[in-house]
Amino acid sequence: MVQCNVAILPGEDARQFHDWCRANPGVAPVLAVSEPGNPALPALGPDIDIRYDLPAYRVFREGEFAGEAGDIEQLWGDDWQAFAFGCSFSLEDALRANDVPLDYEQRGFGGAIYRTNLESVAVGRFGGSLIVSMRPIPLEAVDQVIAVSKAYPGLHGAPVHIGSPEAIGIELTRPDEAIGEMSILASEVPVFWPCGVTAHFAIERAKPRIAAAHVSSRMLVTDVPIESLRCG
Q1: Regions of the chain where pLDDT drops below 70
Q2: Could you say which of 112, 186, 191, 225 would form a disulfide bridge with 175 (CB–CB 3.0 to 4.6 Å)?
Q3: Beta-bridge partner residues of 70
């Protein structure tokens, strides 16, 4: 089933954030938006209540990290809207289902995210650095990775960069977050996809009065089959 990144904002900040998502479909491919004040996301599951259904919430006040929470019931307001967009964890599931070799997993490496020297497309107060996720892919499988990724635009779609991490301001040994020890073989090439954590940086830059988001790697699990998002 599809896993989703989530961002939750009130009022005009929510409307402007939605415009930012539309301008950055690879970063924030929106799969569902709640009605103002309604915590349900029926397009993703009949029983979802976004106030409770994330494993953990990252809370922002005036763009500053204000701690994690197990739910946001006490913060929720009648103008809050939730935005759920595709996640690269589900893209990995799609890659596996299409027989793309993810050999790094057998070596205990689960990928890493990096802040690049690229920028997301700014809309109003929202913008800032593009965050990417990296996975080492065998050189002979890169074309296959591109083709499969393109078929899932709702899961970030095609890679934003392949090879030469320095070209986008990345030093591979200094990830913002890594799962397991860094592991790239000489026969592999680093492949980079837009990452939903970019939305956290956009929120920090915009400085809304209050906002919430998923904690990295703790996603909303939906009732939507991954294969239903395949295009073409």
Answers
A1: 177-181, 232
A2: 112
A3: none
